Amino acid sequence: MNGRTCLGLLLCSILSLQLNAQSPAPAKPAASAGLLNDALRKQQPALTNWDFGGSVRARYEVKDGAGIAGTPGSIDFRDDGVDVSNDYWTERLRYRVGYRDTWWSALVEGRSSFAQSDERWAYFASPTPTGTENRKGKGPESDTVDLHQAYFTLGNPAEFPLTAKIGRQELSYGDERLVGAFAWNNIGRVFDTAKVRWQHDWFGVDLFTGCVVIPEDDRFNVDNDHDWFSGVYANFTQVPKHLLEVYFFSRNADSEAISAGRSPQAPQPSARDIYTFGFRLKSKPAELGNWDYLVESAYQLGNFEDRRLPGTPRLDHSAWMAVAGGGYTFKDTWSKPRLGVEYSYGSGDDDPADGDHGTFENLFPTNHKFYGYMDFLSLQNLHDVRALCTLKPHPKLTLNLEGHAFWLADTSDNFYNAGGAPRGGTASTAGNNYGVNPGYDSFLGFEVDVIASYAITRYAQLEAGYGHFFRGDYIKDSLSAIGSQDANWFYIQAVFTF
User: Fold this and answer.
1) Domain that holds residue 224
2) Into how many domains does the chain fold?
């Protein structure tokens, strides 16, 4: 079964184009359609249906104790003279033009992603899949000029419940734990896909099918037509005090998917057919007083080929994930603090030799938001206990304080990075690298993050953050022969919307 036959439909929904016929409310930055749109629509109301604008983002990051892809021997938390320090600039420019009529709309958005001083290679794999080439370039977040989105929509949900959207577009569902636009990344993530949406007063249903686009610097980005992603996502709004979502995702990649791009900015998948069934239940804002909570869980079945062992028989896949969290907001207290706690679990493989694969497939997530801002982990073979505190001491200033405690779900499986790749091989020489080490303690460590964001105007925002990862026994034991260290991370970022 492949993505072309999995749903067999051309599908889509009209997401917000920022092309609404009303001027944005001035109260909050998010309500603005952008500086250029605001000015044009004020001067010429006839331009209300047009969308001209974009954004500029500049960020400086410092990473110490993080592996540098392409540098021999450089791995996360290593401390024996090998380079694990990297500081670099990234800038992203997006520019768009769109138009919306009563029954149709269209949008084209370009993107320029730049990087300076990044020591990471643009593409590095070991072993290198057949047909691909390791390339240093300007790093994995550089893509000088390319097409980010270009789509056409058909329909008017106010008049008829069925709408369609076809073309290159972002996909974002739920909190983006499994499917997201990956906006933190300097390039982001888009799909060449088609969606249809059925909207009702009680529910909405999206059906989609398509292929993820492969970012590749100095080449026009094309989709990986060997890696099909399809799904059904339904949201129910009339559940008392709650939002309920249920979903089915199908990812179907054949043996050529892994080498679909010669030197992609991100590794491509090995062969697999993964089917995900899940739900997400979340309290509506203010419906439970000062309390809020969410629960999400998903189960997967199918088959999977280890990317390190191409050509081997596919393994039967059975895995699952679960997330539960909640919080309390002190609305009548200075800075309106919200205290929260969250637990995330992604299954691991308890026996790599039994012919089955039990590691949860994280699909296309925005992991940066959930498992530590330092981006060391994904929802694979993981226990994550997270504590949060959000403060708003000024209407324009927000502070986020977070702490994480991480364990491997099963030490018979790998320690996976934020991109879903296993660190090390199937086994390691004791103390010299990561791998599968069932005799080690499962505790990975603690991470503490502090993030501050300030809205200068509705068009301009500043952010800064710091993180420290206190390594645990699993990391110390894995690198005991070569030395290990804690990791630090800092960033400062400015965003301007025009």
Assistant:
1) 3-497
2) 1
